[in-house]
Structures are given as structure tokens and as C-alpha cells.
Amino acid sequence: MTQDQIIAYLIAETAIKANETSLSLYKLKSRSDPRASSYVIGLVGMGIISGILGIVILSDIPTLIKHFIAAVTCRHELLYRNRV
User: Fold this and answer.
1) Digit-coded pLDDT (tens) for 49-63
2) Which residue segment(s) compose the domain that 53 sits in?
């Protein structure tokens, strides 16, 4: 083997692959946090988001019922009753 081949071989054998380092592996993974405070904060956040989405969905239920009844009974004038 020539000196250039030896150098190329050593470089190839000692090269570190960028996608196999611990930094790149842990960058894409979430770590668990066993503290009770982080668990409670997560639950509060989920509760707030669920509450906001629930209010939006629940406020549309009367309209959905009205549209469903009008579609089933073919009485579309029900949709425009009580409108100003």
C-alpha cells in the first residue's frame, strides 16, 4: 500500500458519521421528565387547549342540529327563520 492509500484508509476508518452522534440522535427524541411539576404543567396545558377547542365545537352544535333537521325534512326555510 502506498502512503496515500494508507492515509485514505485511516481517514475512512476513523471518520465519524454525523447522523450517528449522540447529539443528532437525541435531537429527534423527547426525553421523559419524572418531576411532578412538569406533569402537572402538561396536564394544565392540555386542559386549556381542550377547553378552548371544546367551547368552539360545542358552540356549533345547535347550528349543526338545525342544518341536519332541515336537510332531513327538506325544509330549508328553517335555516333562515329568525334572521334579521
Assistant:
1) 999 999 999 999 988
2) 3-80
